[in-house]
Amino acid sequence: MFRRASRLLLSLVMLTSGAVIGVGATAGTAHADSCYTWNRTLSEGSSGSDVTQLQIRVAGWVTSGERLSYDGQYGARTAAAVKKFQAAYGLSADGVAGSATFSKIYSLQDADCTPVHFTYAELNKCNSDWSGGAVSAATAKSNALKTMWKLEAMRHALGDVPLTISSGFRSRACNNAVGGSATSRHLYGDAADLVGSPSLCRLAQQSRTHGFSEILGPGYPGHNDHTHVAFDPSPYWSAPTCGI
């Protein structure tokens, strides 16, 4: 909360003074951010690591069953996701990521780049260093960040209701302790089990339009008490009680 308040104060100071920090003549941002700062406007045809950073934050704004690649290429799918992000937050939906889009992103993230409504701790109740899974610790943590941004989009689409995560990343030891599948996406850091409200079926249904390719919920064996969402290279949805 303090970090977000500090960024807001910094923004107001710069707006009143006319100062712009870390921005060149082609900049698409109004102020620097303690997590990541975009220094140019991005649109179709742009490429680079700054596009990848944008893709991470808008990957939850896609159509049903669609997954946005984190490839650093600003193509038609990225533009469409940006448009949906812009429309969702009351911005001009032109698919071009400029100062207004970046300012909204800055307001949605903390200094460690996690979205404001989620933390790494929520996505890792197994250990402190993200080790012991099916991928390196760095990859597991990176996957968890991508998952959180999809959940942030889903949370907003549901009316900014809190989402409760009962399980995220698991090492093999943690996964075995709870009887998880040997091929569980939790081992990769890109899965989250959701409980509480909204209803499990509502969560399963909504998650289809936020970039999740593996959705398991009520009616699927072992999933009557939670809705599981994840990124899976081989998409699979099953929540029979919910009509999925």
TrEMBL record:
Record's signal peptide: 1-32
Span of domain Peptidase M15A C-terminal: 117-230
EC number: 3.4.17.14
Any Pfam family the entry gives: PG_binding_1
Keywords: Carboxypeptidase, Hydrolase, Protease, Signal
Source species, domain of life: Bacteria
Record domain Peptidoglycan binding-like: where: 47-104
Enzymatic class: hydrolase
Molecular functions per Gene Ontology: zinc D-Ala-D-Ala carboxypeptidase activity
Name of this protein: Putative muramoyl-pentapeptide carboxypeptidase
Organism: Streptomyces ambofaciens (strain ATCC 23877 / 3486 / DSM 40053 / JCM 4204 / NBRC 12836 / NRRL B-2516)
